[in-house]
Design goal:
172 residues, mainly alpha, 0% strand, 5 helices, disordered C terminus
Length: 172
């Protein structure tokens, strides 16, 4: 019976520790729409901005370059989350190693957020003042997740729940 309880606890701890890794999702602009459609929500917002073909081309180029730039960072984040999970699953978890891994994870997250912010600012530079005003009213770039800072609450001209869902979101 003790063995079953131990196995159950280890499995539960494993699940608990994997949740943050999956919460990151596929990250910015990689598709949290239906079927993982890349840029689904972003496309809905950009559609309402009446972008010119030139703007669309430049924005696509920025997104492509951004994805290439952040891919290694995302891979490091995933690797670090796996490492952190393994540290927690040890019989005698090492507090210093866990703390160091968590600090590194926060640094990686901060770097990724800085790159996402830079992308959003570059996109805003390509827009006209009217488009920027519409964009500002669309809650684009207000953060990730649920709640008043960028979430699934509220309705506007872009529809209900257009904000990022749980996890990294999709570059709105």
């Amino acid at each position: 019976m003790k063995k079953l309880a131990l196995v159950t606890m280890v499995v539960a701890l494993g699940v608990l520790l994997t949740v943050p890794a999956f919460a990151f999702g596929r990250g910015c602009c990689t598709g949290n729409g239906p079927g993982g459609d890349p840029g689904y929500y972003q496309d809905r917002i950009f559609k309402n901005l009446n972008l010119t073909d030139e703007q669309k081309t430049k924005i696509e180029a920025l997104h492509t370059a951004h994805q290439k730039e952040v891919r290694p960072l995302r891979e490091k984040m995933f690797d670090k989350s796996v490492e952190l999970r393994r540290l927690w699953l040890q019989a005698n978890p090492d507090r210093n190693k866990i703390t160091a891994a968590q600090k590194e994870m926060r640094t990686l997250r901060d770097n990724l957020e800085d790159k996402d912010t830079a992308l959003k600012l570059e996109i805003r530079k390509l827009l006209t003042p009217e488009q920027n005003e519409k964009m500002a009213n669309s809650h684009w770039g207000r953060g990730h997740g649920f709640g008043p800072r960028g979430g699934m609450r509220g309705h506007d001209e872009f529809g209900p729940g257009h904000g990022s869902g749980p996890g990294m979101g999709n570059c709105q």
